[in-house]
């Protein structure tokens, strides 16, 4: 039998075997400070569904994490990642973590997976009112946003209390496709032994190696990648807010709701009655997820600036979701955070202020200017 035709296969199998037996620590060096700088506004899966980049980011004092959802992706020159760009003025650079569908539980799991790194760490968490729907986080969004590696890291956090681990396990069991239900059942009853693990050590090692390698893959561009600042570095916050109003007015000339023109075109193309009655539910299951997140951050000793953003009040009035209904959710968000020991920057009194929201629900322009100022103050507090 001739071996030469099989040489490439044999070499591939040997290399794969070597990869499997190498320790993950050999790959951790692939995530460098330069990697973090590139990933800062990338909103990549390696950040959102991984653990290694966030771990490295929290171990550095160079970054200020901002957790949220789809508002982080918008090409807005007043986004703090763009506005707080001068490293000689701001001691840390904003690091964006979140995408569409990243609601309270998604963010809570990401943060709980970093629990042992959180004590004293400053960060912001943006709470969007449209998360508080009749159904809360769906199975589809859960499957798309959470990885086995994150859950494994969560349950391996040495200092995360058994009570919180039980609460996470019980909540995770409500999702039909969640991995390793047997382990979660045991954890929910505080009945795990030292030999029980969410992932095996072998699988954990392989996932970490793959994640480290992927962190070096060239990143696709986001909307923020080519967004240029339009304000002078030495401008006052009053001047920046004025510039945001001018910019917002320029980009929302097509309608009376101060909605950016591109989004208004999409609304007009819809041509059907817009039904958002399922939003702003004061009894949404999302509130329990917010409680879990705030309790986790308090127990970890993190220095979190919770930011409660409004909706476009004029637009929501127009589609029949009135102020009274919205206010109940705003008030309950505020109460949930404060009653559980959190500190909140409540922007919901700006529900009708022009250019704070750039479409129906996404913070933008003047809203980002307010938030950027608040984050800058928090950095130096």
TrEMBL record:
It comes from Staphylococcus nepalensis. InterPro entries: DltD, LTA_DltD. Pfam families: DltD. This is D-alanyl-lipoteichoic acid biosynthesis protein DltD. The gene is dltD. SUPFAM superfamilies: SGNH hydrolase.
């Amino acid at each position: 039998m001739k071996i030469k035709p099989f040489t490439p296969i044999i070499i591939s199998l040997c290399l794969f075997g070597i990869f499997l037996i190498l320790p993950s620590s050999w790959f951790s060096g692939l995530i460098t400070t330069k990697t973090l700088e590139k990933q800062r506004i990338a909103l990549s899966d390696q950040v959102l569904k991984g653990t290694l980049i966030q771990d490295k980011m929290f171990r550095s004092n160079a970054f200020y994490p901002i957790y949220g959802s789809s508002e982080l992706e918008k090409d807005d020159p007043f986004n703090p990642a763009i506005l707080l760009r001068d490293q000689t003025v701001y001691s840390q650079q904003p690091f964006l973590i979140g995408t569409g569908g990243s609601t309270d539980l998604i963010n809570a799991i990401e943060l709980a997976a970093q629990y042992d790194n959180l004590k004293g760490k400053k960060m912001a968490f943006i709470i969007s009112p449209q998360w508080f729907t009749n159904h809360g986080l769906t199975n589809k969004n859960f499957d798309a946003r959470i990885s086995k590696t994150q859950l494994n890291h969560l349950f391996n956090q040495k200092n995360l209390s058994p009570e919180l681990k039980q609460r996470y396990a019980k909540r995770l069991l409500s999702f039909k496709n969640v991995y390793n239900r047997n382990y979660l059942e045991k954890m929910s009853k505080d009945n795990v032994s030292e030999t029980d693990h969410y992932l095996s050590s072998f699988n954990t090692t392989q996932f970490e190696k793959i994640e480290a390698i992927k962190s070096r893959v060239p990143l696709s561009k986001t909307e923020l990648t080519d967004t240029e600042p339009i304000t002078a570095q030495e401008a006052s916050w009053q001047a920046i807010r004025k510039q945001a109003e001018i910019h917002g007015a320029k980009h929302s000339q097509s309608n009376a709701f101060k909605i950016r023109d591109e989004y208004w075109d999409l609304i007009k193309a819809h041509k059907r009655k817009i039904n958002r009655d399922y939003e702003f539910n004061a009894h949404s299951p999302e509130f329990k997820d917010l409680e879990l997140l705030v309790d986790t951050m308090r127990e970890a000793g993190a220095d979190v600036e919770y930011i409660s953003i409004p909706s476009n009040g004029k637009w929501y009035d127009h589609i029949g979701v009135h102020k009274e209904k919205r206010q109940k959710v705003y008030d309950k968000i505020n109460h949930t955070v404060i009653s559980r020991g959190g500190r909140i920057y409540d922007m919901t009194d700006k529900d009708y202020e022009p250019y704070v929201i750039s479409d129906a629900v996404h913070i933008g322009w003047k809203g980002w200017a307010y938030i950027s100022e608040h984050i800058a103050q928090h950095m130096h507090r």
